[in-house]
Amino acid sequence: MPKKTGIDEVPVQEELQNEAPIEAAMTENPENPAEQGPTESEGKKKEVPAVKVQEPVAKKVRIMIVQDVDCLICGKRYEYPTQKMVEVPEDVAQILVFGKKAYRM
Q: How far apart are CA 97 and CA 103, in angstroms?
């Protein structure tokens, strides 16, 4: 027996009446595809081509050290004395030049 509430007299059903048929239907006839075995189309897995990813090669550049350098960049330690010409990766050279510790050759 539906209850009527509010000005519009809209029928509202109780929650307990709705839950019982749903739970019974779920336990009697499982429609869940995860519980059933794989179908023929799902049984055959698509082969994914293997792609070999190459890391970009860091271009080395020569820089002249102006001040003593003792720093850690990208997990690698760099220690250079003043007035020494060294080859470092391009990104490290950019950091040192921006920090006015070195200049490019």
A: 5
